[in-house]
Amino acid sequence: ARPGRPAVAACSARAGGPPGAGGGCRGTMPPVTELTLDDDAKRRVLRANLTYVAILVPILGLTAVSLGISTRNVALAVGYACVVLAMIPLTYVLARHFTDRSRVTFGDGSVTVQGWGRPRRFTVAEIERVVTVDSMGFGGTTPTHHLIVVGPTKRLALLVGQMWDRDQLSALALDLAHRGVPLNPIHQPITPVQLRAMDPRLVPWRQAHPVALGLFVGLGVLLFFLVAFVVMVALIVCPPRPAGRGRARRAARARLRPPRR
Q: Which end of the chain is more exposed for a tag (fewer CB within 10 A), N or C?
């Protein structure tokens, strides 16, 4: 440890893990614990994000074709297609950045969750209860464990099993329980809809009803293509006339008229 700074000890968040193991927790003495993602969790996050992008890119590619046909501007359509294709490497870079930044710090009477954007910090006094779920899947994913931190009016944090292992979430739940926060474990398998029925704060509507959300998004995409098709047909059937052609015709007719006496 450097002079004037507290000593920092690294430990694994997995039970029995060696000090400094990947995905472990680094604690400062006294007693703050920091949870980070292990290599397997990072790979799962990268794989999930790239899968979603692989589904989205072909759909957006069709909009590039529609844009080129409707506007008759090849450069605009090619530029849009390049932006769509750039989503693949951009998603990889952002996902790597997210997994490297993700961490949960607790142990001093507060919890700090770092992911995208600014860290979210809340104290024990702001937490109404902690809910641990043994088996639940979001959006068709494989059911796994989760930890949900609930405040008086909203959900403060959701830590999913695809990123955090059971030992890490258990350490956080037990720390908060020892500080007087009510702990509500749910051991039986449950769905997001059932969990939302218990308390709407636990699961937002968009997570409880991913099929309905997908239908709304699909309807929006369908309406976009319908409008683009109507515009394309209108341009083909009734092409716009150049603004100067009408004035030229009127001038020609005026020259052909006999002069007035």
A: C
